[in-house]
């Protein structure tokens, strides 16, 4: 995590971040939605990372220290929620699907037009109603705490194209497959294969944002063939890699 710490009570915000620009670690006293109208945003906490392309939003409850990282030129929109509305959303950071109506609501809340408070309140309610109608999106990559798991995670991150099994990675770090499997479920809530898939999709989102082709991204992230990549990516992101990359290039979701 970065060294600085910042608290803000500012209202809705609109920030344009350059590629790979990062905010300092900070805390807000109110829960808030962070939406990349263009580009891709990573949210990083000590519990792991969440990633949101422009058809997703990150919900951050009050009091969670975090930082943002932009991938590609990113138009970051921030909408704060009062306690009543925040209570309708998860009590932990989460990636939420953004419908076209929710997107327009967020854009209206964060544009430069001055609207009466009652209009803004109705817009927030519409956004919340749209977000809670869809399940939480599986774009969270938990950060293991156990030293053995962290060693396995680093090996997986260093070579995404490797098909090494958990038993083979465990041999390198001095832990049994059974022990590591149990720990992965206990600490991340998912199996190692699922965790590695999440890792690969996170990396694919970033490579595609950098302009790497779909084929080269599939190879770099360890998929056996482009069809498998498209299927795995689409299941988590909600659109194909090609459509996602075109949306970044065109500046729209």
UniProtKB/TrEMBL annotation:
Annotated ranges, domain HTH araC/xylS-type: 150-247
Lineage per the UniProt record: Bacteria, Bacillati, Actinomycetota, Actinomycetes, Pseudonocardiales
SUPFAM superfamilies documented for this protein: Homeodomain-like, RmlC-like cupins
CDD domains with a match to the protein in the record: cupin_NimR-like_N
Annotated signal sequence range: none
UniProt-listed Pfam families: HTH_18
Name used for this protein in its record: Helix-turn-helix transcriptional regulator
Source species: Amycolatopsis rhabdoformis
PROSITE patterns: HTH_ARAC_FAMILY_2
Keywords annotated in UniProt: Transcription, Transcription regulation
Transmembrane segments: none
Superkingdom of origin: Bacteria
């Amino acid at each position: 995590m970065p060294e600085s710490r910042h608290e803000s009570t500012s209202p809705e915000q609109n920030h344009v971040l350059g590629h790979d620009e990062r905010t300092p670690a900070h805390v807000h006293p109110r829960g808030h939605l962070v939406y990349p109208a263009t580009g891709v945003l990573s949210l990083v906490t000590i519990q792991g990372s969440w990633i949101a392309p422009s058809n997703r939003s990150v919900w951050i409850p009050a009091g969670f220290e975090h930082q943002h990282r932009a991938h590609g030129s990113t138009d970051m929109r921030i909408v704060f929620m009062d306690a009543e509305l925040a209570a309708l959303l998860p009590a932990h950071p989460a990636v939420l699907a953004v419908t076209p109506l929710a997107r327009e609501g967020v854009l209206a809340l964060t544009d430069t037009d001055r609207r009466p408070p009652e209009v803004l309140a109705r817009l927030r309610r519409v956004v919340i109603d749209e977000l809670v109608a869809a399940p939480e999106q599986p774009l969270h990559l938990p950060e293991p705490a156990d030293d053995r798991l962290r060693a396995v995670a680093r090996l997986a991150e260093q070579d995404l194209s490797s098909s090494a099994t958990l038993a083979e990675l465990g041999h390198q770090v001095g832990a049994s497959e059974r022990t590591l499997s149990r720990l992965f479920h206990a600490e991340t809530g998912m199996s190692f294969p699922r965790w590695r898939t999440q890792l690969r999709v996170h990396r694919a989102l970033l490579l595609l944002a950098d302009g790497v082709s779909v084929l080269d991204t599939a190879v770099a992230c360890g998929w056996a063939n482009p069809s498998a990549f498209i299927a795995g990516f689409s299941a988590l992101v909600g659109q194909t890699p090609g459509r996602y990359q075109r949306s970044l290039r065109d500046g729209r979701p």
